[in-house]
Write a structure and sequence with these properties.
The complex is a heterodimer of chains A (206) and B (425). Chain A contains six helices and seven strands, in the order E-H-E-E-H-E-H-E-H-E-E-H-H. With 206 residues, chain A is of the alpha/beta class. The longest helix of chain B has 31 residues. The radius of gyration of chain B is 37 Å and the shape is rod-shaped. Chain B starts with a helix and ends with a helix. The chains are: A alpha/beta (206), B alpha/beta (425). At the A-B interface, helix 6 of A face helix 4, strand 13 and helix 7 of B.
């Protein structure tokens, strides 16, 4: 029997990795709702400095606080991505002047090189649902929280057209931390849960 | 004393007359052909030039003690055709032969087969130098390179066989059929990294599949060199797959997918024991696939086991009409790539590329070029089987006439001296 898709949340030594603990369950629910993927009904939390990390090719990292990876964490993440693992990092602050954004982007660029803006016609936005205008707006953006900006793009570490590391300033962590399909802001055109499906499907089909 | 001396002089005289008579009779007998000119491999080039420009001998004999070039072999054959008797011997000439074949792999590997007596030390070389060496087994030796080779030599001591590629190959795309998941994703990634162009049909939701490339209606060996079926969920119209294989297509299918009833004509074997995966992945194991879960295969009668895990068959193959099918018992090979430790990405990629290469349908285009692939066989074909060296018999004939002449001269000289010393006329 094949191993099902498992949503893994990365545990890192600094910061608050567990700040959006409901995200895995909600994303799994939405994947089950829209797709026929074979899914592990439970997410896992995995230390990014462990060998166990390599059993989960999809890794979600979030937090509000400054991030400083240990040498072992850095080495593991670099090797993880080289072997084909997909790293999705979301800034739980929704603030480009926030400490998580500054320290995490610095760590990622030290490890992988320059983060690039992902064009809004990238395959990520059509991997399952169609998002012709790029990443959907979150209720936090509409309510002016964080830096009071609507971030109309995601960023990534790219290898040609292929995204190896996806970085979001949109604070999907807050959006997905609540029950995805129930607490939707009426001003939102798109169900914010749908982009989670695209991200996972894209990671599996890059 | 004087009478004995006279008697001896008469004996010498009679001996001289007898020898003259024998020589006369010998000269009147039909003369046998002159003995062959005997030459070794080292002096062959110079002798061939002499024989072809000054005077062609009636018979030549070559003693082979090192490799004879194809040009010299052909030259000897031409001499034979022009009327010169050509024979050869060479007990130490090993029956070497070599052939090479391009691997259906965009990375350009080459397979090389060499035949030689068991235990013969073989060195594989190209123009740059030695590539590998191995002692021949019961059926010779097989080499594989992960890079393209246009020509190779196999050397055993002073003897050498060489081969050149006779065909260039071209191949189509690979189609991956299965479910959206890590296995389909990483197998696709491995093959794309290897250089294959990969299409996919992957089940994703009740609304539809992920489709990359043409529809399955276009499943044709001319378009797809190989199809990889990881899961039968997205296998629309398995009859088309059966037809594709029968027409010459290559199929790699997992034990998980192969149980579909519609695929019975392609069956390589039946499922045996299910072995659970090792978790966490054991990166220290000598066999990198030891940690993978798998369904063992009980091969059909006409199937060939390709990979064993202990007593159990993990990979098997079978020919189906013009196509080939490989059945893979392993599950989740992506774990090997992700968690298999140093070198696992490359090893996983090479393993999948080899599986595809073992079934892939390719188009051949002939290449110009000739090579000395089986020197001993060609020698026998051109000059006949080796014979014993005839030089001894020819020398004996020349020697006896020389001794007869020496004996004649000695007898006459002794008689003349004796008569002169005693004052006789």
């Amino acid at each position: 029997m094949s191993k099902p898709f498992t949503f893994a949340t990365g545990i890192y030594a600094s910061g608050d990795w567990e700040s959006a603990s409901l995200v895995p369950q909600n994303v799994i629910d939405v994947l089950a709702k829209y797709t026929s993927l074979e899914l592990n009904p439970e997410g896992v939390n995995v230390r990014i400095d462990s060998q166990e990390l390599f059993e989960y090719p999809f890794l979600f990292i979030t937090g509000h606080l400054p991030v400083f990876f240990t040498p072992r964490e850095r080495a593991n993440l670099k090797e993880y991505v080289r072997r084909g693992g997909f790293l999705f990092v979301d800034d739980h602050n929704h603030d480009i002047d926030g400490v998580f954004h500054k320290t995490m982007t610095e760590e990622l660029e030290k490890l992988f090189g320059k983060l690039e803006k992902i064009p809004n016609d990238h395959r990520l936005y059509s991997a399952f649902f169609e998002f012709p205008d790029g990443p959907p707006t979150t209720s936090h953006e509409l309510n002016g929280w964080g830096d009071n900006l609507v971030h109309d793009y995601l960023m990534g570490i790219m290898e040609g057209d292929r995204i190896d590391v996806l970085y979001s300033n949109k604070d999907y962590s807050s959006e997905w931390h609540v029950k995805l399909t129930e607490n939707r802001d009426r001003r939102q055109v798109e169900d914010p849960a749908k982009i989670a499906v695209n991200i996972v499907v894209y990671a599996l089909t890059r | 004393m004087g009478r004995v001396r006279v008697w001896l002089e008469r004996c010498a005289h009679l001996l001289g007359i007898a020898i003259i008579a024998w020589l006369l009779a010998d000269s009147l007998r039909p003369r046998p052909a002159a003995g062959p000119e005997v030459v070794g491999t080292g002096g062959l080039a110079a002798e061939l030039r002499r024989w072809s420009t000054v005077a062609a001998p009636g018979e030549v004999h070559l003693t082979v003690d090192s490799a004879v070039s194809p040009a010299h072999r052909e030259w000897l054959a031409a001499l034979a055709a022009a009327g010169t008797g050509v024979s050869w011997d060479g007990d130490s000439v090993p029956p070497l032969a070599v052939a090479l074949d391009p691997v259906p792999d965009p990375a350009g590997g080459t397979r090389i087969w060499a035949t030689a007596p068991p235990g013969t030390m073989l060195v594989l070389e190209d123009d740059v130098g030695a590539i590998d060496s191995v002692a021949a087994g019961g059926t010779g030796a097989r080499f594989s390179t992960g890079f393209p080779l246009r020509a190779v030599r196999v050397r055993s001591g002073a003897f050498v066989a060489e081969s050149v590629l006779r065909d260039s190959i071209s191949f189509g795309r690979v189609l991956v059929v299965g479910r959206v998941g890590w296995e389909s994703g990483m197998v696709t990634a491995a093959l794309e990294e290897r250089g294959w162009e990969v299409d996919a049909r992957l089940a994703l939701s009740p609304k539809g599949d992920v489709v990359q490339g043409g529809p399955l209606e276009e499943l044709d060996p001319a378009r797809y060199s190989a199809v990889i079926v990881l899961d039968s969920a997205a296998l629309v119209g398995p009859g088309r797959l059966v037809r594709y294989v029968r027409e010459g297509g290559g199929l790699v299918i997992t034990a998980r997918a192969a149980s579909a009833a519609a695929l019975a004509p392609l069956r390589v074997g039946r499922a045996g024991r299910v072995v659970a995966p090792v978790e966490p992945f054991d990166t220290s194991a000598a066999d990198p696939r030891r940690s993978l879960g798998f369904t063992s295969i009980v091969p059909a009668e006409d199937a060939v086991p390709l990979e064993l895990r202990g007593e159990l068959v993990a990979v098997a193959a079978r020919r189906v009409d013009r196509g080939r099918v490989v059945l893979v018992g392993y599950d989740d090979t992506w774990r090997w790539r992700m968690a298999g430790g140093a070198g696992a990405v490359e090893a996983h990629r090479a393993w999948w590329a080899a599986l595809v290469a073992s079934v892939a349908r390719v188009d051949h285009a002939p290449l110009p070029g000739i090579a000395d692939e089986a020197p001993l066989a060609t020698m026998v074909q051109l000059l006949g089987s080796p014979s014993s060296r005839p030089a001894e018999a020819a020398a004996a004939g020349r020697l006896s006439r020389g001794w007869a002449f020496a004996a004649l001269a000695a007898a006459l000289l002794l008689q003349w001296l004796s008569r002169r010393l005693r004052g006789a006329p």
